[in-house]
Automatic annotation (TrEMBL):
This is Hydroxyethylthiazole kinase. Gene3D superfamilies: 3.40.1190.20. GO terms for biological process: thiamine biosynthetic process; thiamine diphosphate biosynthetic process. Catalyzes the phosphorylation of the hydroxyl group of 4-methyl-5-beta-hydroxyethylthiazole (THZ). It comes from Brachybacterium muris UCD-AY4. GO terms for molecular function: ATP binding; hydroxyethylthiazole kinase activity; magnesium ion binding. Its cofactor is Mg(2+). Keywords: ATP-binding, Kinase, Magnesium, Metal-binding, Nucleotide-binding, Thiamine biosynthesis, Transferase. It catalyses: 5-(2-hydroxyethyl)-4-methylthiazole + ATP = 4-methyl-5-(2-phosphooxyethyl)-thiazole + ADP + H(+). Pathway: Cofactor biosynthesis; thiamine diphosphate biosynthesis; 4-methyl-5-(2-phosphoethyl)-thiazole from 5-(2-hydroxyethyl)-4-methylthiazole: step 1/1. Coiled coil: none annotated. InterPro entries: Hyethyz_kinase (IPR000417), Ribokinase-like (IPR029056). It is an enzyme of class 2 (transferase). Belongs to the Thz kinase family.
Length: 275
């Protein structure tokens, strides 16, 4: 399968964010997810709803060959086993060789020693297009902080920003720090996305599915900072629309799939709050 052609690099503004959504839907990128067992189904549903094509190929025999034909790859460390870590290295090798963007979500690093070494090894293996995590995970990935509370952050996004910039520069990547306001940086430029809803924190995989969306947008957008911004904007604006129709986290999760499917580029451009 040939990789989808990318949209040209465009200035980072609200109109470019809407155009990136249209381009991503136009290509329906094949996104390989090596993700955790908690969020796999939710992640696949989010990708399908938004118009991408998920495939959870995460065993050591098939992960490399599949990454060679996928359009984007997600590596999420939420529930790592030795076999899936071997599969991650195979996928990262093949993605790097093919020039396919891969996204690292270092779930739970810092507080847990073995997966923290896995992150160091993966980052040494090849540079991801994007690293996406909560503030504690970004601090730990840059070699600092005290670790989160399992997959949850104990730090604020602003406090992880310097670490995020350093990590972005060291690996030539984009770093996305989640929170009430998402902070996205390439080590120089900074974009803040102020959309979202607190119910995203009460649906498991609220952050993990965003990493998969970033892989989808990175597959079809030349500028990875724009890809990260458009993925975040799509997810968080859809969350705001969904929250208007929902009574709590359960009905919100269902409504979020509906609003991801119906969100159009013009509405995204009108509602995104870039700071
Ligand atoms: P954690 O691992 O701590 O759950 P995460 O990075 O996996 O964090 P969240 O911090 O829950 O995921 O972020 C997922 C999305 O939810 C982000 O894009 C963010 O915009 C949104 N979000 C998080 N907290 C809030 C909040 N208090 N208000 C509005 N939106 C929020
Ligand atoms: N345990 C290991 S991974 C995981 C849990 C609960 C899911 C974390 O999802 P998110 O998106 O970081 O909130
Ligand atoms: Mg969360
Ligand atoms: Mg998380």
């Amino acid at each position: 399968m040939s990789a989808p052609s990318s949209v040209p690099t465009v200035p980072l503004d609200a109109a470019a964010v809407g155009e990136a959504l249209a381009a991503m839907r136009g290509h329906a990128p094949l996104v390989q997810c090596l993700t955790n067992v908690v969020v796999a189904q939710w992640t696949a549903n989010v990708l399908l709803a938004v118009g991408a094509s998920p495939s959870m190929v995460d065993n050591p025999e098939e992960a490399g060959p599949f990454a060679a034909v996928a359009d984007g790859v997600l590596v999420n460390l939420g529930t790592p086993q030795e076999a899936t870590v071997a599969a991650m290295h195979g996928a990262v090798s093949a993605a790097a060789a093919a020039g396919t963007p891969w996204v690292l979500d270092p779930v739970g690093v810092g507080g847990l020693a073995w997966r923290s070494r896995v992150v160091v090894d993966l980052l040494a293996h090849a540079s991801p297009a994007l690293v996406r995590g909560n503030p504690s995970e970004i601090l730990a990935s840059a070699g600092g902080g005290s670790g989160g509370r399992g997959p949850e952050s104990v730090d604020a996004a602003e406090d992880a920003l310097d670490a995020g910039r350093a990590l972005a520069r060291e690996h030539g990547t984009i770093v996305a720090v989640s929170g009430e306001v998402d902070h996205l940086t390439d080590g120089t430029r900074l974009v803040r996305v102020a959309n979202g809803h607190r119910w995203l924190t009460q649906v498991t995989g609220g952050g993990c599915a965003l990493g998969a969306l970033m892989a989808a947008f990175a597959a079809t957008t030349d500028d990875p900072l724009l890809a990260a911004t458009a993925a975040t904007a799509t997810y968080t604006v859809a969350a705001e629309v969904a929250a208007e129709r929902a009574a709590g986290p359960g009905s919100f999760a269902v409504a979020l799939l509906d609003s991801l499917a119906t969100l159009n580029p013009q509405e995204l451009t009108e509602k995104v709050m870039l700071r």
